[in-house]
Amino acid sequence: MKLIEREHYLNKLLAVRDIPDIKIITGVRRSGKSKLMDAFIDKISIDDNVNVVRIKLNLKKYESLLNADELYSYIESNYDEVKKNYLFIDEVQLCDGFERVINSIYEEELYDIYLTGSNAFLLSSDLATLFGGRTYEVSLFPFSFREYLKYYQMEDIDKAFDSYEKQGGMAGSYLYKTDDDARKYVNGIYRTTITRDIVQKFKIENEDLLLMIGNFLMDNVGNQTSIRNVAAKLTSGTYKTNDKTVGSYINCYCRSFLFYPIQRYDIKGKRYLESDKKYYLADLSFRFSEIGTKNADYGHLYENIVAIELLRRGYEIYVGKLYDKEVDFVAIKDGQKTYIQVSDDITREETFNREVTPLLSIKDAYPKLLIARTKHDESQYEGIRILDIARWLFDSQYN
Q: What is the structure's pLDDT at 96?
């Protein structure tokens, strides 16, 4: 498989190298966690004073290390007293009792520790409990649009975006020669790998209901989601369920990094709202592989792309509420807010006015952006920057 250097994530790892935390690489299945770890090892192995211990617990050659005592003995025996020692373990959750091993190695200050794991088992919400809060999480996402362009070496940014919005960032699908086979690959990750992990970890009794809820969320990206309404809609159809079950299943998807829940924020009252979050998909390729292009609201799909890109760039994001109006994103980074609206086509005056009105209603001085599919360079309207989505995704000046 063709590889590209994922500089954004490598720089994150290099920035915390030798800092005494347990580094955890998290992200949706098949997003490249192991490849990132390999690339980081290549970077640090240039130094002759480095001793790398690399363990892939999903491989048969390491089968004996699935026992906690054997794993500890192997790690301890490979320690080099005269070098700087680094420990890298893939699929660490496969070892029963791995947390005792890692905590012991950490307390003994033997290694700089880096881990990946199947996300239904090793989750960001569990890390503080497993390792006493001594962790640093690197959130890994599927390929960004910039990485997509780098991979395919495409120069026509508009043509590239038209492909990226459907093909998405799951790089393993790029190996297939037809769109149909690529979609089958992505769909296999969703229906077998991710769903299997969730069913196994959380002892899900109704896998069909789990998939139905996943499909519902995919079909409604960009819409506020009421758990009660989802339960009522499913109950009126094939399945009998309730708010508690639906909420629990959605939480399972979020804990597996397939969906990202985004809370609402009252811009006027400066307070967070708990009800009716929005759920954004880690990569739109999952949606297209599962439900195709039916009912495709491209404004909402672009909103999904922007949401994941903002998370990738390190923003804390919320859905803004201003009286009866909605601002797609309140993005916060380094204490600074940016208000963002996302749209498909703003050539019609009615659509343009609908998108800019909420931004113009905000009276503070923080930046305001309207991101749409304009295919043009940046322009401005009443202090609002109007940006083409492909160019915003590509150009690092908008970070």
A: 87
Question: What is the tens place of the pLDDT at every residue in 99-111?
Answer: 899 999 999 999 9
Phi and psi at 269, nearest 5°, equal -85, -10
The pLDDT of residue 399: 47
Please list the residues that pair with 271 across neighbouring strands.
266
Rounded Cα distance, 350 and 150, in Å: 37
Task: Say which DSSP state 156 is in.
Answer: -
DSSP lists the bridge partners of residue 85 as 51
Q: Which residue has the tokens 């009800």?
A: 275
Residue 160 tokens read as 């590239």
**Predicted local confidence at residue 396, as pLDDT:** 63
CA dihedral 248, 252, 253, 255 (to 10 degrees): 130
Q: How sure is the predictor about 397, in pLDDT bands with cuts at 50, 70 and 90?
A: low
Mean pLDDT of 213-223: 93
Instruction: Quote the CA–CA distance of 108 and 122 in Å, as a whole number.
Output: 22
Give the three-class secondary structure for 29: coil
pTM of the predicted structure, to 2 decimals: 0.92
CA 258 → CA 6, 38, 76, 169, 375, distances in Å?
21, 23, 36, 13, 30
Rounded to 10 degrees, the C-alpha dihedral 285/288/290/294 comes to: 160
Residue 342 sits at φ, ψ, to 5 deg, of -125, 135
Report how far apart, in Å, the C-alpha atoms of 366 and of each of 182, 206, 269, 362, 383 are: 42, 47, 16, 9, 10
**How many CA atoms, within 13 angstroms, populate the side-chain half-sphere of residue 295?**
12
pLDDT for res 332? 95
User: Parallel, antiparallel, or unpaired: how do β-strands 112-116 and 84-90 relate?
Assistant: parallel
